[in-house]
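Methods: example folding runs. The two proteins below were folded one after another, and each record is reproduced exactly as written to the output file, sequence line first and structure-token line second.
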Amino acid sequence: MTIAPLAISLGDPAGIAPEVIVEAWTQRKAQGLVPFFVVGGAAVLRAAAATLGIDLQVAAIASPGDAFDVFDTALPVLGGEDCVPSPGTPTLDGARLALHSLTLATQLAVSGAASAVVTGPIAKSKLAAIGFTQPGQTEFLADACGLAHDEAVMMLAGPSLRTVPLTVHEALAAVPGLVTRALIERKVRIVARALARDFGLAAPRIAVTGLNPHAGEDGRMGTEDRDVIAPAIAALRAEGLAVTGPHPADALFAAHERTRYDVALCMYHDQALIPIKTLDFDQGVNVTLGLPIVRTSPDHGTAFAIAGKREASAGAMIAAIRMAGECAARRTA
């Protein structure tokens, strides 16, 4: 089965994204990666390759389909937008390039010219300075697809674990007030549909964590687990979904427990991200569920501190490209 090539957005060119993209292309055959192209940043990619000691051929392409013709021998790049390479030092010109790359890559995925979009990490503060108003790339993707922000669900996926944060970039003090039955039920339904469509899990097993220590111990350590989370789980089970919990979060990620579920829905950001980054840091992928397009991203940031120092691992970018190709192939099938 042939799918359209994947579109990769450059991310902030001062971060490690150019290096890990170049490294992923050099490992394309060994890793069995489907053809992809990068939107913009040819000079930045050449500079990253030089830093890594890689003799990189960059091929300018006029349309996504041209990537098939050159992918075996050169890294395809669509568009002439570029900036002066400055590893470790983000600039406004770099932010403009990052936003252009993200915007066009997303548009190509929405139109079907690309089978998926893989996004490089961005620096939100620099983007905000040039008018980027969304909290992050997930919300940007939701807007581009005409969806409400809460219809785009972040899932972190690695070889050992999948997690979904119910609340994402929220202050911890605000989380208890944001944990509602409606939000839990809506996100679990989105996760269940997406795991069936994109990951081939017809009846995904979803474990839901508690909010409080020991899942509240029947109200002794907070009432949200008993009064909000448990009723939401009961309602979802009544719909026929394989949902369990609320589980104490301190035990749910032990090796023997992870065999009992396909994904864990966690109540807040760090409850979901600490275990995935501990277990699968170099292979963790951020997947946006609920979109009409496939979107993945390496589960790490710009890492300005190590950009240009040959210290970055391409494992997460390779995993993100592989997962995007697999999900796109399932949708095509």
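Second run, written to the same file directly after the first:
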Amino acid sequence: MSNSPTQIQLIQPDDWHLHIRDGEVMKDVLADTARQFARAIIMPNLKPPVTTVALANAYRTRIEANLKLLGIDSFTPLMTLYLTDNTSADEVRKAKAEGIAAFKLYPAGATTNSDEGVSDIQRCYQALEAMQAVGMPLLVHGEVTSTEIDIFDREAVFIDQVLDPLRKDFPGLKIVFEHITTKQAAHYVRDAVTGEKNTIAATITPQHLLLNRNAIFAGGIRPHNYCLPVLKREEHRVALLEAATSGNPRFFLGTDSAPHAKGAKEAACGCAGCYSAFNALGLYAEAFESVNQLDKLEGFASLFGPDFYSLPRNTKKITLRKQAQAVPTELPLGDATIVPLRAGETIAWTLV
């Protein structure tokens, strides 16, 4: 990576955690994403969820049709399957053979469209054994769902109750602890002992690097800063920023950009999710610059993700310029609108 105080050039990044939805809204989300990223891990929590290879292939076909309508031929969707209590070992082997990138673990009820997720991880052990055997990564939404556990503690409790036992039972299984939000998660991934090959990594979102939980309540309820896992205390944001900018290859970019129409967010029971696809790279650059670590951005954004997934690194270069960018107050989303992260504000870095 070459850079100056006003310009950064880096290998084109990938987004290792992305929601693009389906239907009319997909085209708008894809346009924002493909402007910045070469590839993206596509989340499977549609209605109904993408639980089989056949459903994933059909979803990929719809994505490719929208890319063609947009005239985009330089973006690759990396498909995933939604893990359930009933996922079979045969489906895992079929998924590997047909190029599915990973399986996604949603604890039932943990987040948007997760009601058909896993109720008890031990019900998935045959599928997990097959995943370990064929080298299929498991992507984890790391929160317990018990109402007895405070929402701000659910990630830390998940480490103790689910993730650590899971890794002991399947030491060869590659796991991505997605959108981590706590000091406990950052330190767990940083310090995890693995075998000869690294088997654990974590993605970090722009909102969790830039915001703490005060951002949800600044002058009133700020629904467009509400996501799951929820923003945490400042000490956790600082720990995440330290992890992301450390140069440790276990941490890489995953926006968890999650489009919800403005009306669905600004509602009596608003949806969880921040929309960062519009300006994600500028947001990440701002976070890295805040601790004078812009030289570490290329590893986090462009190198460590493909290395963990055993995929080739991209070769195309992109340029970010230190140039103020006004974030629109709203963007089109199908026949509705969406409010992007930092709407109405200015960010310091712009993709050339």
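Comment on the second run: The domain at 15-313 is CATH 3.20.20.140 (TIM Barrel).
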